[in-house]
Amino acid sequence: MELDENVHFVSRCPFCSAEYDLDGAKVIGEQEDATVVYVTCSKCESSIVAMVAMTGLGIVSLGLVTDMTAEDTKRFFGGEEVTSDELLSIYQLLKEDQNTIRALTAKQ
Ligand SMILES: [Zn+2]
């Protein structure tokens, strides 16, 4: 998906209303029809993570205010999924250690 000036996604800073300079937008991740970009306001330096998705209805965008850095965001989105093997070993661990389960499920 091409990110250009024709894509009018979250185009203004929610804090100071300055128009975003998309040249400074960093593409964090892309997945089929969705792109996650990280934009920092050149005026007030607050950052948002925006998800731009191509749907049957057109382009939909969603912006989230964040205090993560672009690197943090990348790590977050690039994180590997938990595999079923890992889930199983956690299950085994919990099964062997009833105290952990009790601690996790204890009513406060
Ligand atoms: Zn701003």
General description of the model:
- The structure is a single chain.
- This protein is of the alpha+beta class and about 110 residues long.
- Helices cover about 30% and strands about 30% of the residues.
- A 4-stranded antiparallel sheet has the order 1-2-3-4, covered by helices on one side.
- The longest helix is centred in the last third of the chain and has 13 residues, at about 85-95.
- The N and C termini lie far apart (about 50 Å).
- The protein binds zinc ion (ZN).
Key terms:
single chain; 108 residues; alpha+beta; 3 helices; 28% helix; binds zinc ion
User: What is Rg?
Assistant: 20 Å
Instruction: Note the run of SSEs as H and E.
Output: EEEEHHH
Bound molecules: zinc ion
The tally of beta strands, per DSSP, is 4
Proportion of helical residues: 25-40%
General shape:
elongated
The parts where pLDDT drops under 50 for at least 5 residues are: none
Largest sheet: 4 strands, antiparallel
Strand order of the largest sheet: 1-2-3-4
- Beta content: 25-35%
State mean pLDDT (0 to 100 scale): 76
Give a short summary of the structure.
With 108 residues, the chain is α+β, with helices and mostly antiparallel strands. 28% of the residues lie in helices and 29% in strands.
Write the layout of secondary structure elements.
Layout (H helix, E strand, L loop, with lengths): L25 E6 L2 E7 L6 E9 L2 E9 L3 H9 L5 H13 L1 H8 L3
Antiparallel strand pairs: 1-2, 2-3, 3-4
The chain binds zinc ion.
